[in-house]
Amino acid sequence: MSGRQTRRRYLATLGVAGAAALAGCSNDSDDRTPTGGPSIPESVGRWPSFGYDTANTGAAADETGPTANVIVQWGYPTEKQVFSSPAVVDGSLYVGSNDGHVYCLSAVNGARQWRLPTEGLVRSSPAVSDGTVFVGSYDGYLYALAAGTGEVTWRYEAGASDNPLVDRAPVRASPTVADGTVYVGSDSDRVSAVSTSDGSEQWTAGTDGSVQTTPAVTDGSVYVGDNGGAVTALSAADGSQQWKSDAVDGVTGSPAVADGRVYVGTDGGDVVALSTSDGSEQWRYGTDGPVHSSPAVSEGTVYVGSDDSSVTALSASGGEKQWSFETNDAVRSAPSVVGGNVYVGSDDSQLYILSAGDGTVQWELSTGGPVSSSPAVVDNVVFVGSGNGNVYAMTAP
Q1: Can you give the pLDDT of all 397 residues of the chain as single tens digits?
Q2: Which of 79, 211, 293, 365 is the most exposed place for a label (fewest CB within 10 A)?
Q3: 92 touches 106 (CB < 8 A)
Q4: CA 169 to chain centre
Q5: 80 CB-contact burial (10 Å; exposed 0-12 / middle 13-18 / buried 19+)
Q6: Distances from the Cα of 390 to the Cα of 25, 82, 167, 190, 369, angstroms
Q7: Which of 267, 257, 262 is nearest to 287 (CA)?
Q8: pTM value?
Q9: SS3 label, residue 7
Q10: How many whole angstroms separate alpha carbon 16 and alpha carbon 367?
Q11: Helices (H) and strands (E) in the chain, counts
Q12: What is the three-class DSSP state of 176?
């Protein structure tokens, strides 16, 4: 597929590149670029956090996504690259930008509803729960924001540092919200649990390295990977260690949990499955590049990207390869699985829609910049950020 320029790709590239160029003109609140495509419903569905659910499966069984003739419905320009993954709740989209802001946009037409400045890059993906937006910043804080206004309800020093030369370490990790608690990691080599209501600390646990990953929370346990090479299971109630696996290289992609296994990628290029009960290794699959993408899991299959430019589908039970699709650059975007298709971005600037069954291309579009953001796919709309600084909503007839 390298170098391939089909009519489908050509037409899709024209549509999105034109929208991207228009969207980059200014940064006024009304500067989005509707293209006259199918309207987005006011009651557009929910994609509340990175990985869709608290287990980070990246799969939404009841949602639908576009598969052909996909165009940009609107594009909104931030001032820097968008690596954050959008959350969509109650007709609004929430996303961070490298310009240091958290944005709230109308999911229907892209109009800006509010934006909040922080003192650092915002690569963390927002998690939205009960009218509050939780998001981290490179300034070292976890923020709780009123979803309707962007007002800061509280902030927690998740990146508190013991280094006298550093006030706070970045919070690039995305938070997970479960049962009244926010779980978040930071570059200060720890993961913390804080109350959603007031930000009070419930517990904190040290790790073997910086935590750039989104914790997976399910069945009373918190699973977290760190760039020191460990995957750790902690008690959600008090943070006590249940087990730790050191049998992996650095982990910068978030773990996904399903059917008694934790799936995670490593800097060494492996996808590893661990038992949720004791952390024992169940299987390992090697790629030809670091795996910074976070796995998605759906109906017995694991989908994951690699810096070797591939998206690969593996058997969730045994790790056997089912299919592999080659893009033209590294795949660091976490796949989203909706309606029998896989939605994933690549550093080649494309958003790909692949058949979950055999990896065939349903559609692909250029966004004008590398796509590390993970798509949110709801009600036949794809919402995604791009390295060209834009946030896009993409639809089809």
Answers
A1: 333 333 234 334 434 444 443 333 333 344 455 555 668 988 999 999 999 999 999 999 999 999 999 999 999 999 999 999 999 999 999 999 999 999 999 999 999 999 999 999 999 999 999 999 999 999 999 999 999 999 999 999 999 987 777 789 999 999 999 999 999 999 999 999 999 999 999 999 999 999 999 999 999 999 999 999 999 999 999 999 999 998 778 998 999 999 999 999 999 999 999 999 999 999 999 999 999 999 999 999 999 999 999 999 999 999 999 999 999 999 999 999 999 999 999 999 999 999 999 999 999 999 999 999 999 999 999 999 999 999 999 999 7
A2: 79
A3: yes
A4: 21
A5: middle
A6: 11, 7, 31, 32, 9
A7: 267
A8: 0.92
A9: helix
A10: 6
A11: 1, 33
A12: strand
Long-range contacts from 247-251, C-beta under 8 angstroms, 24+ separation = 247/272, 247/281, 248/272, 250/209, 250/226, 251/213, 251/225, 251/226, 251/227
Joined tokens for residue 62: 């009841």
What are the distances in angstroms from CA 346 to CA 16, 72, 385, 387?
15, 17, 12, 10
Cα separation, 216 vs 42, in Å, equals 30
| Token couple for 5 | 């320029």
